[in-house]
Amino acid sequence: MGSALPLGEPAPVDGSLPDATGIDQATPFGVYLHVPFCRVRCGYCDFNTYTSSELQGARQDQYADTLLREVALAERVLGAAGPLRPASTVFFGGGTPTLLPPGDLTRMLDGVRTTFGIEADAEVTVEANPDTVTDAVAAELAASGVTRMSIGMQSAVPHVLAALDRTHEPANVRTALVSARAVGFDVSLDLIYGAPGESLVDWRASLEDAVALAPDHISAYALIVEEGTKLARQIRRGAVPAPDDDLQADMYELADDLLGAAGYEWYEVSNWARSNSQRSRHNLAYWQGADWWGFGPGAHSHIAGVRFWNVKHPAAYAQRLAGGESPAAGRERPDAAARALESVLLRTRIREGLPVSELLGEGRHAVAALIADGLVDGPSALHGSIVLTRRGRLLADAVVRALTD
User: Fold this and answer.
1) What is the Cα–Cα distance from 336 to 45, expressed in whole angstroms?
2) Is the domain 29-287 a CATH 3.40.190.10 member?
3) In sequence order, which residues have a C-beta less than 8 Å from that of residue 272 and are 6 or more positions away?
4) What would you measure as the largest C-alpha separation in the chain, in angstroms?
5) Has domain 335-405 been given CATH number 1.10.10?
6) How far is 245 from 398, CA to CA, in rounded Å?
7) Residues ≥6 apart with Cβ < 8 Å to 325
8) Is 36 in contact with 94 (CB distance < 8 Å)?
9) Residues 176, 213: Cα–Cα separation, whole Å
10) What Pfam family does this protein match (any one) (predicted)?
11) Where do the domains of the chain lie?
12) pLDDT for 331-353, tens place per residue?
């Protein structure tokens, strides 16, 4: 049911921002809509999601109305700090947003549109399990203003899907993609590598199947073992092996080779797109430090340097909003040092890199050694940006430590 919420100061009951919070109207504003429902819990998943047996009083059929109460609260909070900005990106994540009827997703999106406005060229993404996408679902979502679908393929190999507790039919990835294409969506496929029992041959098969489907965008994430998950318990008792770091590195290099040869260019450590226009603009906004409001239980927000996060359980979330209270559980305003560290952590992950000018003295002194070690691209550094080489992407945490120690 998700990892623990961060520590921070208590959030005010009315959800108001700290005094003198100044919102830059030129900063893009994104909206994240969390749908925390899944049919089954995948053994590796640490997201804030719930199956029907775990809802404990919360109801899926009332969820859209509950979330719209938070949209109304956000209108009051942000309106008190200045003019409301239209959303430049909207992202339905989860969980499995497409477990809800398309009409519920439409009502949430209409609530955002009515309250804040949505820019004419906005990117509006819905995450989807392949088994939940039909021609009718895709058509209704397109009519509501959705422009992009992110399909959870994860693997094309049945035994790998089983190891991940994924229950979708592999053939339905193509079916979902065809439905999404038919209504004009940009399409992303999400993959995971390093599952127990997955070989390099298995991973190649998944990559080749994904490329053959010709999506606009592909995400490939290394499996991470999170405490509290079924997978962590299985590894601890020796039922399955832990991910092999060297094998995962080989898998990453294979992905970069095959995707690059197929015309996909990396733009973030785990993401490749056919063109700049097909990058995930919503996720880029996170990495570039834009503003966003995350709606839903456990969702996180960032407004003008203030971070806040909601209570995790859908029942507690609904109860607070029904009582006229903010669902925020806590908040923080990182100081200058924390913001600088975060900027290095996030912006080194993207192809445009981190401006060298943002590094403090010791960090600047580390650049030459990182170039010599093949972790940072030398010509880019000479032109003022820290851009990771492929080897640097594999050792991104070490690069960040060198730049911030």
Assistant:
1) 33
2) no
3) 217, 218, 219, 220, 255, 256, 259, 260, 264, 265, 266
4) 59
5) yes
6) 15
7) 13, 14, 15
8) yes
9) 11
10) Radical_SAM
11) 29-287, 335-405
12) 999 998 899 899 999 999 999 99
Rounded CA separation 173/192 (Å): 15
> pLDDT category, 388, cuts 50, 70, 90?
very high
In the prediction, which pLDDT does 247 show? Answer: 98
Q: Contact 285/295 with Cβ under 8 angstroms?
A: no
Residue with the two structure tokens 């609904």: 318
Instruction: Return the amino acid letter for 322.
Output: A
Structure tokens at 253: 């290099």
pTM: 0.95
What SS3 state is found at 282? helix
Q: What's residue 183's pLDDT? A: 98
The structure tokens 């859908």 sit at 314
pLDDT given for residue 7 in this prediction: 75
On the question of pLDDT at 226 being above 90, the answer is no
Q: Position 163: which residue type?
A: A
- What is the structure's pLDDT at 225? 86
The two domains 29-287 and 335-405 share their CATH topology (first three levels equal): no
Specify the residue for token string 């972790």: 375
pLDDT at 1 over 50: no
What is the model's pLDDT at position 41?
80
